[in-house]
Amino acid sequence: MFSKSKSEKTASTMGTGSRTTRTVGGGSPSIIGADVHIQGNLTTAGELQIDGQVEGDIKCGSLTMGENGSVSGSIDADSAVIKGRIEGKVQAKQVRLEKSAHVDGDIFHETLSVEAGAQLTGKVIYASREPEAPAKLTASSDTSKKVSSTGGSNKALLDSPTADTGKSSQAAAS
Q1: What is the biggest distance separating any 2 CA atoms in the chain, rounded to whole angstroms?
Q2: pTM of the model as a whole
Q3: Can you tell me the distance from the alpha carbon of 73 to that of 86, in angstroms, rounded to the nearest whole number?
Q4: What is the pLDDT of residues 97-134, one digit of tens each?
Q5: 65 closest CA partner among 46, 77, 39, 83
Q6: Which DSSP string corresponds to the chain?
Q7: How far is CA 96 from CA 80, 109, 110, 148, 159, in A?
Q8: From its phi and psi, is residue 153 left (phi > 0), alpha (psi between -120 and 50) or beta?
Q9: Which is the most buried residue in 58, 101, 155, 169, by most CB within 10 A?
Q10: Which segments of the chain have a pLDDT < 50?
């Protein structure tokens, strides 16, 4: 009664004469309507369309955000078309900011398209993936041993017990 082949046939014959088939997520995008407010993270391998509000992180295959859509959190997608407002990091292979987009956060991308009128406050970084956070220097790490072997004030700062407490380097060196 509900076979996969019949479902694919229905999905491929819909539209204005053009054949469109989607293999990820069963064919239909997940839609967050304009009257929906979500608090929490969203994850899907397929397409996601956001016209409402999301407070949380989003991980999806493809993201389309409408003009009235908003996200407070990070976005991780293969492709992202942004028309709405984002407060947080965007990481996607392909990013397109349309003229109504407002992004307050860093964008990590392989391909970036920005229409005139789009607003961006943050860094734009070409990267296939987000760089790892730098390692913190401590007296027990290999990096600090290399730095402390150079002598001078770096050795005094790294070997002092105040290096991790945020006290001034003048106090640590004396």
Answers
A1: 82
A2: 0.60
A3: 8
A4: 999 999 999 999 999 999 999 999 999 999 865 455 55
A5: 83
A6: ---HHHHHHHHHH-SSS------STTSSPEEE-TT-EEES-EE-SSEEEE-SEEES-EEEEEEEE-TT-EEES-EEEEEEEE-SEEES-EEEEEEEE-TT-EEES-EEEEEEEE-TT-EEES-EEE-SSPPPPPPPP-TTSHHHHHHHTT-THHHHHHHSTTTTTT--HHHHH-
A7: 6, 10, 11, 46, 48
A8: alpha
A9: 58
A10: 1-24, 130, 137-174
Q: Among residues 54, 51, 47, 16, which one has the least CA distance to residue 35?
A: 51
Distance (Å, whole) CA 114 – CA 46: 24
Residue in the structure block whose two tokens are 């970084």? 125
